């Protein structure tokens, strides 16, 4: 599907073609695939302290490094893998974040056992839609829903999942629709959310 060249987007999409494509085709569109949800949770953790475009440009390298974010394969990684990835210039070489990804894969497998899927767990935190206009500058960095998600994830042993990271995850995976009024994606995303069968 092509995107019209002259459209109004959320201001954060800027002029970078890769960033615009991510904004237009991914961000805010509801996701119920466990692998994609896990990948995003991990990449949001890697983003901590960095710009998302930095992570986006390295996303394929991250996928190669972490077995396509296959939960079982990542959970089976060990200290030798951590040392190897610390030499991989294609990703963010941060020991704590690499170790966190492996830890979080193990915790995510536990969530699957308990809830049937990661999707069922994460979508249980979907808040009621915000009433009123969504405009630049009015979107919070964290919400009560993201605080609750963060608190529960940390209680379950996840790491690099603070409330701000959790809200960025919720925005990207379509648990909320934070495309601003006037952005051409807002109505499209709303329609996809309306049509979505929530995972149980």
UniProtKB/TrEMBL annotation:
Hydrolysis of the deoxyribose N-glycosidic bond to excise 3-methyladenine from the damaged DNA polymer formed by alkylation lesions. Keywords: DNA damage, DNA repair, Hydrolase, Metal-binding, Zinc. Its EC number is 3.2.2.20. Gene3D superfamilies: Hypothetical protein, domain 2. Pfam families: Adenine_glyco (PF03352). Zn(2+) binds at residues 10, 23, 179, 183. One of its GO terms (molecular function) is metal ion binding. The keyword DNA damage applies. This is DNA-3-methyladenine glycosylase I. It catalyses: Hydrolysis of alkylated DNA, releasing 3-methyladenine. GO terms for biological process: base-excision repair.
């Amino acid at each position: 599907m092509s995107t019209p060249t002259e459209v109004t987007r959320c201001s954060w999409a800027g002029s970078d073609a890769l960033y615009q494509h991510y904004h237009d085709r991914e961000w805010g569109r509801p996701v119920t695939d466990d692998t994609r949800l896990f990948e995003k949770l991990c990449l949001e953790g890697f983003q901590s302290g960095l710009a998302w475009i930095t992570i986006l440009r390295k996303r394929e390298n991250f996928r190669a490094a972490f077995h396509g974010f296959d939960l079982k394969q990542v959970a089976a990684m060990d200290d030798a893998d951590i040392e190897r990835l610390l030499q991989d210039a294609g990703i963010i070489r941060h020991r704590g974040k690499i170790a966190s990804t492996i830890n979080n894969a193990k915790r995510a497998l536990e969530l699957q056992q308990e809830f049937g899927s990661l999707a069922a767990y994460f979508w249980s935190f979907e808040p009621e839609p915000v009433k009123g206009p969504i405009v630049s500058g009015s979107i919070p960095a964290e919400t009560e829903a993201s605080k609750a998600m963060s608190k529960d994830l940390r209680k379950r042993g996840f790491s690099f999942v603070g409330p701000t990271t959790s809200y960025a995850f919720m925005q990207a995976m379509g648990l909320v629709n934070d495309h601003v009024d006037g952005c051409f994606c807002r109505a499209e995303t709303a329609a996809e959310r309306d049509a979505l069968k929530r995972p149980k």
